[in-house]
Design brief:
Pathway: Cofactor biosynthesis; tetrahydrofolylpolyglutamate biosynthesis; Cofactor biosynthesis; tetrahydrofolate biosynthesis; 7,8-dihydrofolate from 2-amino-4-hydroxy-6-hydroxymethyl-7,8-dihydropteridine diphosphate and 4-aminobenzoate: step 2/2. By secondary structure, the protein is α/β, with parallel strands linked by helices. The chain is built from 15 helices and 17 strands. The strands form 3 sheets. Strands 4-3-2-5-1-6-7-8 form an 8-stranded mixed β-sheet, with helices on both faces. Strands 12-13-17-14-15-16 form a 6-stranded mixed β-sheet, with helices on both faces.
């Protein structure tokens, strides 16, 4: 499906910003927001940051807020297929023609990076569309991330892993310090509490911010199931209500993300920024949550694909554990690719015992991993010339896992949905 002319122009205006060297600092976006009249001010907001699980946590929270009748702005990254996916209002991506208007207005600020441009556009679009609350996913790190140009009323830290060490530092402690520096609102909540990092987080978070753990706000417990499944059933207790349901997002790690989203909602309720949710709204909002490309099953021309954007060691560990627990070991084939800065050998070591036939394929990115390196990581694999070729070659009688990169998942979704 071809892009309409306005969307093509949007892509063109943004393309050159990919090439700009990213320089840490909030001065550029702060200046631009001031020129725009500070659209971020007066906008209640939640910042979600961490190595993994940010998008799912943000999606849970935004969906429940919408079920409460609120007009919600959701800003996430990266996009999978279309850039306008990053900015959503009421669950719907900003129309490309509206995003184009903001990108054109921002074109005079040549110093802005791609991400800074879209973050400024998100703040402006949310203000212009009079959203009741914004849920903002950080891009990389926290301290110098453009989303941190505002002190958000609530900040949620999912976890700390080892992705982007070239930017954030060589150890988890360095990375934790960078992320904790963005914990500077009224309430900051940590999802997966790690005692080895707690002192680092306390030291670098704003001392005026109340720091807590998600489990101090709500109770969310996974329940045993009769049959192995990718989906978790949970019992939750919060806001004086108790409910039980199967989470709509697959993977046992979604229990952590759901707990943190509910804790964030609890903080908003405590600060009287939103009304207290009803049991019906909690259940309806949870069940309505969607987050594409994360353990998402798609059927296409008699084939079954399981798409997951795991692209670092922690995410790949969580993915392979989820697949094994669901009884899928040995029942999967694999389509794999990754970017050049990812731990290829370690990810391949986790995947090889679980899968049968393997195809590796190049990515259309200057940061793509060399195809020969990919092939060496999976001895005996088939080399496909493109993502489309790999998907078309998948066996009809097998479930094929597509993983290693969000860019790979985006290419697969584009092809499978007929948007290539």
């Amino acid at each position: 499906m071809s892009r309409p002319p306005l969307a093509v122009e949007l892509d063109r205006l943004l393309a050159h910003r990919f090439e700009a060297r990213v320089v840490p600092g909030l001065e550029r976006i702060a200046k631009v927001l001031a020129e725009l009249g500070h659209p971020e001010q007066g906008l209640p907001s939640v910042l979600v940051l961490g190595t993994n699980g940010k998008g799912s946590t943000a999606a849970f929270l935004a969906s429940i807020l919408q079920s409460m009748g609120l007009r919600v702005g959701l800003y996430t990254s990266p996009h999978l297929v279309r850039v306008e996916e990053r900015i959503r209002i009421g669950g719907t991506p900003l129309p490309p023609e509206e995003l184009l208007v903001w990108v054109q207005r921002l074109s005079r600020f040549s110093e802005l990076s791609y991400f800074e441009t879209l973050t400024a556009a998100a703040f402006a679009a949310f203000a212009e569309n009079h959203v009741d609350i914004a849920v903002m996913e950080a891009g990389l790190g926290g301290r110098w991330d453009a989303t941190n140009a505002k002190a958000h009323e609530v900040a949620l830290l999912t976890n700390v892993g080892t992705d982007h060490q070239d930017w954030l530092g060589p150890t988890r402690a360095h990375i934790a310090a960078e992320k904790a520096a963005a914990l500077r609102g009224r309430e900051a909540i940590v999802g997966e509490w790690d005692e080895s990092l707690c002192e680092v987080i306390r030291t670098h978070a704003d001392p005026q911010t109340r720091l807590s753990q998600a489990s101090q706000w709500v109770t969310v417990e996974p329940l045993p199931t009769d049959e192995p499944s990718l989906f978790s059933t949970v019992r939750a207790h919060a806001f004086g209500e108790e409910w039980q349901l199967q989470l709509p997002l697959a993977g046992p790690f979604q229990v952590h993300n759901y707990r943190l989203a509910l804790a964030g909602l609890g903080a908003l309720d405590k600060l009287q920024l939103v009304p207290r949710p009803s049991r019906d709204a909690l259940i309806a909002g949870t069940l309505a949550t969607r987050w594409p490309g994360r353990l998402e099953e798609i059927r296409w021309q008699g084939r079954r694909f399981l798409l997951d954007g795991a692209h670092n060691l922690e995410a790949m560990t969580a993915l392979t554990q989820a697949l094994a627990a669901a009884g899928l070991a040995g029942k999967l084939d694999l389509v794999f690719s990754c970017l050049s800065d990812k731990p290829l050998a370690a990810m391949a070591e986790l995947l090889r015992p679980l899968v049968g036939e393997v195809q590796v394929t190049p990515l259309p990115s200057p940061r793509a991993r060399d195809l020969e390196e990919l092939a060496r990581a999976f001895p005996g694999c088939r080399v496909a010339a493109s993502v489309a070729e790999a998907l078309e070659a998948a066996a009809p009688h097998r479930l094929t896992l597509v993983t290693g990169s969000l860019r790979l998942v985006g290419e697969a979704l584009s092809f499978l949905r007929g948007q290539a």
